[in-house]
Amino acid sequence: MKIKDIKKLIRPLRHTPLHPQWLINRNGEATLTRLLPDTDDLVLDIGCADKAASQYVRDKANYIGLDYNDTASEWYETVPDVYADAQALPFAEESVGTVLLLDVLEHLPDPELCMAEICRVLKPQGKIIIQVPFLYPLHDMPLDFQRWTRYGLERLLSKHRLTITELHEDGNIGESWAILTNLALSKTLVWCIGNKHPLLVLAVFIPFLIPVVNLAGYLAARIFPDISYIPYRYRVVSVKD
């Protein structure tokens, strides 16, 4: 069984403690709904995958999901509205009202070029919503190139004349610990299944450990101080000057 098949199998559990990334998924939808503007301008979702973000765009908004051909066709088996490179956007200058860049920037070999392209197509006072992982394992390899701190994001956006209006650090000690632990457990289980390793006898208990770790992380996050030096993710909202 391939990793993408396992992901599809457990996807219905993503909003329950049975899912390894429950703590990541728990508040994601409500946050995205709040951040997306109530506008009839074009909303461009770069690296859209299965276009999940489209369900949170207002009905009157024009949504376009864009993804790279190889990524969509070979990796995720999805069908975007537009096949294109995020570093060479096929849109006119100042034609887009809002850009979504959700868990994409770390996968681009030249993020500076992508940001320049976004600024080119974004209207004045247009909004860009960026989400990037920080304390998170390598994924979609070999196309996983970098991580940013909040200070790196501030520098990147300032360089392209984008003004930050919101910057959130998701995760404290308890949540980040639980997420990394569950991802390690899940990867171990997948590896044992794929390699038919004798440790699979012990690995069958991993699905029962995952909700325990999730709930322990959830409780720990409410006990420990909200210390932001080990976030698992950053979410930034910026406006074009």
Task: Using the CA coordinates, give the radius of gyration.
Answer: 19 Å
Biggest sheet character: 7 strands, mixed
Strand arrangement in the largest pleated sheet:
3-2-1-4-5-7-6
Range of helix content: 25-40%
Per DSSP E runs of 2 or more residues, the count of β-strands stands at 7
Characterise the protein shown here.
- The structure is a single chain.
- This protein has a 7-stranded mixed sheet with strand order 3-2-1-4-5-7-6.
- Helix 5 (111-121) links the parallel strand 4 and strand 5 (122-133).
- The chain folds into 2 domains: 1-26 and 173-225, no CATH class; 36-172 and 228-240, 3-Layer(aba) Sandwich (Rossmann fold).
- Helix content is 39%, strand content 20%.
- It is globular, with a radius of gyration of 19 Å.
- It has 9 helices and 7 strands; from the N terminus they run αααββαββαβαβαααβ.
Can you summarize this structure?
With 241 residues, the chain is of the alpha/beta class.
